[in-house]
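Re: beginner question about structure tokens

> Can someone show what the tokenized structure looks like for a real chain? I only ever see the sequence side.

Sure, here's an example I had lying around. Input first:
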Amino acid sequence: MQLKLKHLYIRNPILMQIIRFRQELVGGLRAWFDGNGFTSVDAPILTLVSLYEDETAVQLELHGQPVFLTQCAGYYLEAAVHAFERVYNIGPGFRAAESESSRHLVEYWHVKAEVAWTELEDLLGMVEEMFRCIVTHAYGVVERLAPDLRVPFQPDRMLPPYERISYRQALERLEAKGISMKFGDNIQGERQLSLASDFQCPFWLVGLPAEHEPFPYQLDPDDGRLTLTADLIAPGRFGEILGVAQKIHEPETLEARMRDKGKASDSNYDFVRDVHSFGCVPHTAFGMGLERLIRWLLGLSHVRDTNAFPRLVGRRFYP
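And the corresponding structure tokens:
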């Protein structure tokens, strides 16, 4: 019932405190980025290209031209990072895939950043430092502004550095739990949650299968079936909250990956090719779901509870 009456339920004291917490958290994130030399870059919401498969993106037609609602700002930040070297964006994303899990919304907010002259190891350290600030900041916000909310963990136990496990180690752990998987399978959903049950604080799952990752991500030179990527997974039943990747900077490698993903013949990606053909340097990127982060920090049951007016799969968009 409360979802149908969000225009009234927003007056609920607990929801009000969650919304205030969200505001303060976004302010803390922006302060971290600004204090570490990042430039905020606004990216288009209407775009000609999708991040993953077209079927998972929201498609429209505008002035006779087919377009997508953005899934993330990645392609545009990749262009901007070659001007500013450190860039970020906090903006909306849209998802058409019909998943009714407690971790998905049709409309969500995404925190994206790209950093020039870095490799995966550099970015892992930078993200961990950001999380050190986020966790400490979140705890302070709850104490100061949201006394009815509870951070469901001891903040000092959630501070980095975080343990790392490889994709192969993850398969071995799941096999020991009776969950059979073949090399290359995606570790998502209940598989990921089963893996997370072994941990008491966030952990890195390093080296995700190339088959399931977007074409701009660098392949592992030691095993081309994997990518130079990692997901930060929260303990318990919260799942992935952030992903990092070392991105391709050589035009020839990009072209090969685009062929692998069936994108080579799509001229809408020509601007991505241009970025790689004119002075592209080694760079990395990370993306984090804002609602997923808030859900974990506050121990909420569903990402819908982090948003004043959530848009959920299978529900009429009202109000």
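Each token stands for a local structural state, so reading them left to right follows the chain. The chain has a mean pLDDT of 94.
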